[in-house]
Design a protein that fits this description.
The protein is an alpha+beta fold. The chain has two domains: 4-79, Nucleic acid-binding proteins (OB fold (Dihydrolipoamide Acetyltransferase, E2P), Beta Barrel), CATH 2.40.50; 85-212, de novo design (two linked rop proteins) (Up-down Bundle), CATH 1.20.1440. It contains six helices and five strands. The chain has helices spanning 88-104, 112-128, 133-147, 158-169, 182-198, 207-212, and strands spanning 4-16, 20-27, 31-37, 56-62, 70-79. A five-stranded mixed beta barrel has the order 1-2-3-5-4. The radius of gyration is 18 Å and the shape is globular. It starts with a strand and ends with a helix. The mean pLDDT is 91.
């Protein structure tokens, strides 16, 4: 099959054989896929830094219906998260967003709204850094659960329910004016993370780190 080229976010990578990487990525048009990037761990890798976690790339790959893994041929960096590398809290938030996305997104099912959610939340994180980190994380968690189809009636305080209602109506870029309190956000966050855990096979590795911030 001819090579596809898609806009995508890199979700995770791990070593495979000598010098190669398994790459999990979420494309705008084909959904979540996994593939092998040959020679990606070698010093003169053809991929450079494009396979870093949550980098937005134009990824080229070959896909055969009989194989689970695609063959990743190229990755052109569109937007990196390198500007957050010096902020530990933002780094943990990026790990959390990548891990939740990797667990929740079903394989090979396009989800344009989830893709746009990642674009918006990552742009907000780059702009606000640690100043509004929990706003971005809570907004992402709310919509990740909602777009995955298992958001129940929230049993939280009236303030937290009002916060959830505001997030359901306003883009994150317009969300700064809402009366955001640490307690209200934490109340809603706890409820949403419980819902995430109930629908995942294992506990999210980054949750303890998030809770410690």
């Amino acid at each position: 099959m001819p090579a596809r080229v898609s806009e995508a976010f890199i979700l995770r990578t791990y070593p495979f054989q000598e010098g190669d990487l398994i790459v999990g990525f979420f494309t705008r048009d084909q959904g979540r896929l996994r593939g092998v990037a040959k020679r990606a761990r070698r010093p003169k890798s053809p991929f450079g830094s494009a396979l870093e976690r949550l980098s937005e790339v134009r990824i080229g790959y070959y896909q055969k219906e009989t194989l689970e893994l695609v063959r990743v041929e190229s990755a052109e960096l569109v937007q990196s998260q390198f500007g957050l590398a010096d902020c530990y809290e933002a780094g943990v938030a990026l790990d959390y967003i990548a891990e939740v996305s990797d667990h929740l997104l079903p394989p090979a099912e396009p989800n344009e709204r989830f893709y746009r959610l990642l674009v918006a939340v990552l742009a907000d994180l780059r702009a606000s850094r640690e100043a509004a980190l929990w706003r971005a994380v809570t907004y992402f968690t709310y919509w990740a659960v909602r777009l995955s189809g298992f958001l129940p009636t929230l049993r939280v305080s009236e303030d937290s329910l009002a916060l959830a209602g505001a997030m359901a109506k306003a883009p994150i870029a317009e969300f700064g004016g809402f009366p955001w309190t640490r307690d209200t956000a934490a109340d809603l966050r706890r409820q949403l993370t419980r819902e995430l855990e109930q629908h995942l096979e294992r506990r999210l590795a980054t949750l303890p780190l998030m809770e410690a911030l």
